[in-house]
Amino acid sequence: LQTLGPDLTTQDLKQPSKEHQSNGSFLQFEILIPGPPGTSLKRGISLANATTVELSCKLDPDSRLKNPQVTWKRGNETISHTSKTENSWSIKLVIVDNSKMGNYSCILKGEEEISATFYLHVPKIEAREKPIITYERDTAVMVCKSDSTPMAWTWYMMTGSKPIVINESVWTNKYLIDALSVNVTRLKILKLTKEDAGAYWCEAAFELGKSEGKMELKVLSIMAPLKPFVAIVAEVIILVTTIVLYELYSKRKGK
Q1: DSSP code string of 109-167
Q2: If we measure between CA atoms, which residue out of 187, 164, 191, 165 comes closest to residue 176?
Q3: What's the rounded Cα separation, in Å, for the pair 207 and 25?
Q4: From the candidate CATH numbers 3.30.750.24, 3.40.50.300, 3.60.150.10, 2.60.40.10, the one assigned to the domain spanning 20-121
Q5: What GO CC annotations are associated with the protein (predicted)?
Protein backbone atom coordinates (compact mmCIF):
# COMPACT_ATOMS: atom_id res chain seq x y z
CA LEU A 1 0.00 0.00 0.00
CA GLN A 2 1.36 3.38 -0.95
CA THR A 3 0.70 5.95 1.75
CA LEU A 4 0.03 9.62 1.38
CA GLY A 5 2.53 12.20 2.61
CA PRO A 6 2.17 15.88 3.43
CA ASP A 7 3.60 16.83 0.04
CA LEU A 8 0.86 15.04 -1.89
CA THR A 9 -2.14 17.02 -2.99
CA THR A 10 -5.25 16.13 -1.04
CA GLN A 11 -8.67 17.68 -0.70
CA ASP A 12 -8.58 19.59 2.57
CA LEU A 13 -11.91 19.51 4.31
CA LYS A 14 -12.77 22.70 6.15
CA GLN A 15 -16.10 20.99 6.75
CA PRO A 16 -16.37 17.17 6.66
CA SER A 17 -18.53 15.52 4.00
CA LYS A 18 -20.46 13.87 6.82
CA GLU A 19 -20.07 15.43 10.20
CA HIS A 20 -21.47 15.63 13.66
CA GLN A 21 -20.08 17.76 16.43
CA SER A 22 -20.87 17.61 20.11
CA ASN A 23 -19.33 20.45 22.11
CA GLY A 24 -16.61 20.64 19.43
CA SER A 25 -15.05 17.36 20.60
CA PHE A 26 -16.38 14.75 18.12
CA LEU A 27 -16.05 14.69 14.35
CA GLN A 28 -17.15 12.13 11.76
CA PHE A 29 -15.71 11.82 8.24
CA GLU A 30 -16.82 9.41 5.54
CA ILE A 31 -15.55 8.35 2.11
CA LEU A 32 -17.92 6.62 -0.30
CA ILE A 33 -16.32 3.74 -2.23
CA PRO A 34 -15.94 3.80 -5.15
CA GLY A 35 -18.03 6.98 -5.30
CA PRO A 36 -19.19 8.93 -8.38
CA PRO A 37 -16.78 9.17 -11.35
CA GLY A 38 -13.98 11.62 -10.65
CA THR A 39 -14.44 11.45 -6.88
CA SER A 40 -11.16 11.42 -4.97
CA LEU A 41 -10.59 8.60 -2.51
CA LYS A 42 -8.09 10.75 -0.61
CA ARG A 43 -9.23 13.20 2.04
CA GLY A 44 -7.14 15.73 3.94
CA ILE A 45 -8.55 16.53 7.37
CA SER A 46 -7.31 19.65 9.14
CA LEU A 47 -7.24 19.40 12.95
CA ALA A 48 -5.98 22.13 15.27
CA ASN A 49 -7.17 21.00 18.70
CA ALA A 50 -7.64 17.75 20.61
CA THR A 51 -10.76 15.89 19.51
CA THR A 52 -12.27 12.48 18.89
CA VAL A 53 -12.49 11.53 15.22
CA GLU A 54 -14.43 8.74 13.54
CA LEU A 55 -13.31 7.74 10.03
CA SER A 56 -15.66 5.63 7.92
CA CYS A 57 -15.40 3.87 4.57
CA LYS A 58 -18.81 3.14 3.07
CA LEU A 59 -19.27 0.83 0.12
CA ASP A 60 -21.62 2.07 -2.57
CA PRO A 61 -24.64 -0.29 -2.64
CA ASP A 62 -24.37 -0.41 -6.45
CA SER A 63 -20.70 -1.44 -6.34
CA ARG A 64 -19.67 -4.72 -7.99
CA LEU A 65 -17.59 -5.42 -4.90
CA LYS A 66 -19.69 -7.70 -2.66
CA ASN A 67 -18.82 -8.83 0.89
CA PRO A 68 -15.24 -7.51 0.74
CA GLN A 69 -12.51 -8.27 3.25
CA VAL A 70 -11.72 -4.97 4.96
CA THR A 71 -8.38 -3.92 6.45
CA TRP A 72 -7.49 -0.62 8.10
CA LYS A 73 -3.93 0.66 8.19
CA ARG A 74 -2.15 3.54 9.82
CA GLY A 75 0.74 4.11 7.44
CA ASN A 76 1.93 0.53 6.88
CA GLU A 77 0.72 -0.73 10.26
CA THR A 78 -2.49 -2.80 10.29
CA ILE A 79 -5.09 -1.69 12.85
CA SER A 80 -8.56 -3.05 13.62
CA HIS A 81 -11.79 -1.20 12.88
CA THR A 82 -13.96 -0.39 15.86
CA SER A 83 -17.40 -0.69 14.32
CA LYS A 84 -19.20 -2.16 11.32
CA THR A 85 -22.64 -1.60 9.88
CA GLU A 86 -24.08 -2.73 6.56
CA ASN A 87 -21.47 -1.83 3.90
CA SER A 88 -19.65 0.57 6.29
CA TRP A 89 -16.48 0.17 8.38
CA SER A 90 -15.21 2.73 10.89
CA ILE A 91 -12.34 3.47 13.25
CA LYS A 92 -12.52 5.89 16.17
CA LEU A 93 -9.44 7.90 17.18
CA VAL A 94 -8.86 10.00 20.26
CA ILE A 95 -6.48 12.70 19.04
CA VAL A 96 -4.76 14.40 21.96
CA ASP A 97 -1.33 15.10 20.43
CA ASN A 98 0.59 14.95 17.17
CA SER A 99 1.44 11.24 17.54
CA LYS A 100 -1.99 10.21 16.21
CA MET A 101 -1.83 12.42 13.12
CA GLY A 102 -0.94 11.00 9.70
CA ASN A 103 -2.38 8.57 7.14
CA TYR A 104 -5.26 6.17 7.78
CA SER A 105 -6.35 3.88 4.94
CA CYS A 106 -9.10 1.34 4.46
CA ILE A 107 -8.51 -1.46 1.93
CA LEU A 108 -11.46 -3.40 0.53
CA LYS A 109 -10.59 -6.72 -1.13
CA GLY A 110 -12.87 -8.91 -3.19
CA GLU A 111 -12.94 -9.49 -6.93
CA GLU A 112 -10.93 -6.29 -7.03
CA GLU A 113 -9.12 -4.15 -4.47
CA ILE A 114 -10.05 -0.56 -3.66
CA SER A 115 -8.47 1.69 -1.04
CA ALA A 116 -9.31 5.09 0.44
CA THR A 117 -7.02 7.27 2.53
CA PHE A 118 -7.61 9.93 5.18
CA TYR A 119 -4.70 12.27 5.91
CA LEU A 120 -4.89 13.98 9.32
CA HIS A 121 -2.73 17.12 9.57
CA VAL A 122 -2.51 20.41 11.42
CA PRO A 123 -3.96 23.44 9.59
CA LYS A 124 -1.89 24.66 6.67
CA ILE A 125 -0.57 28.22 6.60
CA GLU A 126 -1.32 30.53 3.69
CA ALA A 127 1.72 32.57 2.67
CA ARG A 128 2.99 34.21 -0.51
CA GLU A 129 4.46 31.57 -2.82
CA LYS A 130 6.26 33.89 -5.24
CA PRO A 131 9.38 35.75 -4.09
CA ILE A 132 8.84 39.21 -2.60
CA ILE A 133 10.91 41.66 -4.66
CA THR A 134 11.66 45.13 -3.33
CA TYR A 135 14.45 47.71 -3.20
CA GLU A 136 17.05 48.98 -0.77
CA ARG A 137 15.76 51.47 1.82
CA ASP A 138 12.16 50.33 1.22
CA THR A 139 9.94 48.34 3.64
CA ALA A 140 9.06 44.68 3.03
CA VAL A 141 5.74 43.31 4.28
CA MET A 142 5.05 39.60 4.81
CA VAL A 143 1.69 38.12 5.84
CA CYS A 144 0.67 34.65 7.06
CA LYS A 145 -2.91 33.43 7.46
CA SER A 146 -4.61 30.39 8.97
CA ASP A 147 -8.20 29.14 8.84
CA SER A 148 -7.80 28.10 12.49
CA THR A 149 -6.66 30.15 15.46
CA PRO A 150 -3.08 29.36 16.56
CA MET A 151 -2.02 29.50 20.19
CA ALA A 152 1.00 31.56 19.10
CA TRP A 153 2.79 32.91 16.01
CA THR A 154 6.59 33.01 15.62
CA TRP A 155 8.65 34.55 12.80
CA TYR A 156 12.05 33.21 11.70
CA MET A 157 14.78 34.23 9.25
CA MET A 158 17.73 32.28 7.90
CA THR A 159 21.11 33.74 8.82
CA GLY A 160 23.91 31.75 7.23
CA SER A 161 22.90 28.15 7.85
CA LYS A 162 20.97 28.77 11.08
CA PRO A 163 17.35 29.86 11.62
CA ILE A 164 17.01 32.85 13.93
CA VAL A 165 13.87 33.91 15.81
CA ILE A 166 12.90 37.46 14.91
CA ASN A 167 12.50 39.38 18.15
CA GLU A 168 11.17 42.94 18.02
CA SER A 169 12.73 43.82 21.37
CA VAL A 170 16.21 42.99 20.02
CA TRP A 171 15.88 44.81 16.69
CA THR A 172 13.54 47.63 17.63
CA ASN A 173 14.33 49.75 14.57
CA LYS A 174 14.37 46.89 12.08
CA TYR A 175 11.37 44.59 12.56
CA LEU A 176 7.73 45.15 13.41
CA ILE A 177 5.35 42.23 14.07
CA ASP A 178 1.64 42.82 14.50
CA ALA A 179 -1.57 40.79 14.40
CA LEU A 180 -4.15 41.89 11.83
CA SER A 181 -6.48 39.38 13.53
CA VAL A 182 -6.13 36.25 15.67
CA ASN A 183 -5.65 34.24 12.44
CA VAL A 184 -3.35 36.67 10.62
CA THR A 185 0.18 37.82 11.47
CA ARG A 186 2.28 40.44 9.66
CA LEU A 187 6.02 41.09 9.61
CA LYS A 188 7.48 44.42 8.46
CA ILE A 189 11.19 44.75 7.69
CA LEU A 190 12.29 48.38 7.72
CA LYS A 191 15.13 50.17 5.92
CA LEU A 192 16.02 47.23 3.70
CA THR A 193 19.58 46.40 2.75
CA LYS A 194 20.93 43.65 0.50
CA GLU A 195 21.83 41.69 3.66
CA ASP A 196 18.09 41.34 4.42
CA ALA A 197 17.51 39.16 1.36
CA GLY A 198 16.88 35.48 2.02
CA ALA A 199 14.40 33.00 3.50
CA TYR A 200 11.75 33.95 6.07
CA TRP A 201 8.94 31.90 7.54
CA CYS A 202 6.14 32.10 10.06
CA GLU A 203 5.30 29.28 12.44
CA ALA A 204 1.84 28.73 13.91
CA ALA A 205 1.60 26.63 17.07
CA PHE A 206 -1.60 24.61 17.49
CA GLU A 207 -2.55 22.19 20.23
CA LEU A 208 -1.87 19.27 17.87
CA GLY A 209 1.38 20.53 16.35
CA LYS A 210 3.07 23.29 14.38
CA SER A 211 2.69 24.49 10.79
CA GLU A 212 4.87 26.80 8.68
CA GLY A 213 4.51 29.25 5.84
CA LYS A 214 7.73 30.05 3.96
CA MET A 215 8.64 33.10 1.88
CA GLU A 216 11.65 34.44 0.00
CA LEU A 217 12.76 38.08 0.00
CA LYS A 218 14.84 39.61 -2.79
CA VAL A 219 16.32 43.08 -2.29
CA LEU A 220 17.43 44.98 -5.40
CA SER A 221 19.74 47.97 -5.64
CA ILE A 222 17.99 51.32 -6.04
CA MET A 223 19.89 51.59 -9.35
CA ALA A 224 18.26 48.44 -10.69
CA PRO A 225 15.25 50.22 -12.30
CA LEU A 226 17.63 52.63 -14.05
CA LYS A 227 19.79 49.96 -15.66
CA PRO A 228 17.63 49.50 -18.80
CA PHE A 229 17.49 53.29 -19.28
CA VAL A 230 21.26 53.63 -18.80
CA ALA A 231 21.84 50.82 -21.30
CA ILE A 232 19.65 52.53 -23.91
CA VAL A 233 21.39 55.89 -23.38
CA ALA A 234 24.79 54.20 -23.74
CA GLU A 235 23.71 52.56 -27.01
CA VAL A 236 22.49 55.91 -28.36
CA ILE A 237 25.76 57.63 -27.41
CA ILE A 238 27.79 54.89 -29.09
CA LEU A 239 25.64 55.10 -32.21
CA VAL A 240 25.86 58.91 -32.44
CA THR A 241 29.63 58.82 -31.83
CA THR A 242 30.05 56.22 -34.58
CA ILE A 243 28.07 58.34 -37.04
CA VAL A 244 30.06 61.52 -36.22
CA LEU A 245 33.40 59.73 -36.56
CA TYR A 246 32.31 58.19 -39.86
CA GLU A 247 31.33 61.62 -41.25
CA LEU A 248 34.63 63.14 -40.15
CA TYR A 249 36.51 60.27 -41.77
CA SER A 250 34.49 60.65 -44.99
CA LYS A 251 35.22 64.39 -45.17
CA ARG A 252 38.96 63.89 -44.65
CA LYS A 253 39.01 61.17 -47.26
CA GLY A 254 37.22 63.43 -49.71
CA LYS A 255 39.77 66.22 -49.23
Answers
A1: ESSSEEEEEEEEEPPPEEE--SPEEEETTS-EEEEEEESS--SEEEEEEEETTEEEE--
A2: 187
A3: 13
A4: 2.60.40.10
A5: axon; plasma membrane
